[in-house]
Amino acid sequence: xxxxxxxxxxxxxxxxxxxxxxxxxxxxxxxxxxxxxxxxxxxxxxxxxxxxxxxxxxxxxxxxxxxxxxxxxxxxxxxxxxxxxxxxxxxxxxxxxxxxxxxxxxxxxxxxxxxxxxxxxxxxxxxxxxxxxxxxxxxxxxxx
Length: 144
Prior knowledge:
The protein is of the alpha+beta class. 28% of the residues lie in helices and 42% in strands. The protein has a six-stranded mixed sheet.
């Protein structure tokens, strides 16, 4: 088990280290970098995708991230802008993804916002092209 990153890193590097740990399946490290009251919010429709909507708490956020990373592989991320100010990190860009079940690739313009409190991630918000994501991944999940 690796040691949890500390906020001695700059906020952007800290958030990146937590997301990287989750992508690698190191959920104990990812969870250790999250506030006990963390809230993840995504504009993806929860009734269509298992990583849409809002979840609360490190365990729920890690399960949601696990489902998201299991659904599609990130091929690249073209970062257009990064804003790092005090306790807030904003990343705007376009990610290229490959659906794991079909091999289909697609572009997802997104904005990711994270806030930190007391040395841990307190909120994570993901705003992406929900239409493109549902079109690419929607058939991978049963409709309600």
